[in-house]
Amino acid sequence: MKKRFENQNRMLESFGHEFLVACPTCKAQAKVYSLGEYSPYQTGIIRRFSCLHCGLSKEYVPKRNHYNQSIVSYSDTWVDGSINIGGAYDWFFGYPLYLQTSCCGNILWAYNFEHLLYIKRYVEAELRGNYPYYLSMESRFPLWMKSAKNRAAVLKAIDKLEGKARE
Ligand SMILES: [Zn+2]
Questions:
Q1: Cα(50) to centroid of ligand 1, in Å?
Q2: Which of 36, 68, 104, 162 could form a disulfide with 45 if both were Cys (CB 3.0 to 4.6 A apart)?
Q3: So which domain of life are we looking at (predicted)?
């Protein structure tokens, strides 16, 4: 029987409860998480970086605009003073994701283990649900990740990242 992936219409934002990042000091696996609601649109929340290997820890409450709203950027490049969503880094500090590797001429990345498994289930599936919600991850996966000819290579890269996540 063919593996099937039903659309769950999850948005990238729904995986932002935890980011595995490379510690800027010791390069080991560290975490970025929120003390409270993790939505990037929730203001006044302390966002924390913590590395258990070298003990480095930082806290940051993102700035707000004049309307008391979060300043969120979906640009490809890091914008200082914003919460930056969509690149291979955490939203708040901009540290590089620990779970990233080159694959098919691109970078495959995931915020955390749950996010990685979600991508894996999608890539593994030979049958996929039609018409995902346009803002969902399913509708935004890049073509190289969706292509059947890249499936084996992408799954191999995901395997490698699963190993890293368990370090
Ligand atoms: Zn460290």
A1: 8
A2: 36
A3: Bacteria
Amino acid at 61: V
33 alpha carbon – ligand 1 mean position (Å): 15
Q: Contact 103/154 with Cβ under 8 angstroms?
A: yes
| Ligand 1 centroid to residue 96 C-alpha, Å | 13
Q: Tell me the per-residue pLDDT of 35-59, one tens digit each, with 9 for 90 and over.
A: 999 999 999 999 999 999 999 999 9
Ligand 1 centroid, distance to 58 Cα (angstroms): 11
Tokens 């080991």 sit on residue: 28
CA–centroid distance, residue 57 to ligand 1 (Å): 8
SS3 164: helix
Domain ranges for the chain, please list them: 4-11+99-165, 13-84
Partners of 107 in beta bridges: 102
